[in-house]
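your task:
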Amino acid sequence: DDDGISWRESTITKDKWGHEPSITWHFDGSILMDVRPFSKSEGGWRGDVRVRLRSFDDGETWHEWKDVVPPKSNNNAGSIYADHTTGLVFQTLTEHDIPGRREMFRFLVSTDGGKSFPYMYKPFPDSRYVGYSQIIKYDEGVYMVSAEYSTNVNGKYSQQGSRVIFLTLNEVLNNVTYS
């Protein structure tokens, strides 16, 4: 409200939401948050799902977006980005048969504003460790993804560095499979 001079905490509660969040401006002007949920009944931070929250007041309050089913992930190392030019929403996730391992990186594409993600692109071999990631738009039709990365995986975690890749919209859309 004052160009970043002062800050205050919003109403999101860490007891239910707020672990490993990623945010983007949605097409309708709201803020869309993709976040890892907390469940006391299930023993703490959930690693198998993501939850979508929306704020219609610039982040002051947050509400669960209940008519959407976010993609499943077994470790939640993901991010989300809405491209206002193309009308597409992108989601990155990793999956693996062993919880906590961050392999099988997926770049998911939504054509309905983030309600579903029927298209999937795999820019890395499934055997690569690819962890927490971030998506930004580099130029029209070009996206930059930064992520933890390693060519070999030892146990649950790995000795990773960083990797930055540039993905073109044509590359992604011409190589998608259905998720």
User: Anything to note?
Assistant: The chain has a mean pLDDT of 78. Helices lie at 169-174.
